[in-house]
């Protein structure tokens, strides 16, 4: 599956990207797609068999599953 995690801060996005890579999960930092909102404008896009929420920084805003036709929200921290 492909996932997109948005964050409240750029630092949280960087730390999450590093944590995912340490677990050998392919990930990359990218601008947030226009249809999703984000406080910092940076997201982490990654591919994994599950969303690996425990690897994401506590400052995560939301996590979406991307299926090629749209996005399904899996988590929202308000």
Topology:
Elements: E1 2-7, H1 10-22, E2 27-31, E3 42-47, E4 60-66, E5 71-76
Antiparallel strand pairs: 1-3, 1-4, 2-3, 4-5
3D structure, described in words:
By secondary structure, this protein is α+β, with helices and mostly antiparallel strands. It has one domain. It is built from one helix and five strands. It has a five-stranded antiparallel sheet, covered by helices on one side. It is globular, with a radius of gyration of 11 Å. The model has no long low-confidence stretch (mean pLDDT 94).
Task: Estimate what percentage of residues fall within beta strands.
Answer: 35-45%
- Helical percentage: 10-25%
On the 0 to 100 scale, the average pLDDT is 94
- Taken in chain order, the helices and strands follow as EHEEEE
Distance between the termini: 25 Å
Largest beta sheet: what is the strand line-up?
2-3-1-4-5
Largest sheet: 5 strands, antiparallel
Give the class from helix and strand content and strand pairing: alpha+beta
What is the β-strand count?
Answer: 5
Low-confidence stretches: none
* Alpha carbon gyration radius: 11 Å
General form: globular
How many H/I helical runs? 1
What is the total domain count? Answer: 1
């Amino acid at each position: 599956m492909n996932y997109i995690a948005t964050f409240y801060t750029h630092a949280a996005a960087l730390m999450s990207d590093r944590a995912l890579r340490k677990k050998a999960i392919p990930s990359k930092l990218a601008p947030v797609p226009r249809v999703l909102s984000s406080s910092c404008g940076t997201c982490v896009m990654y591919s994994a068999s599950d969303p690996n929420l425990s690897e994401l920084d506590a400052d995560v805003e939301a996590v979406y599953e991307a299926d090629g036709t749209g996005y399904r929200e899996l988590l929202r921290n308000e």
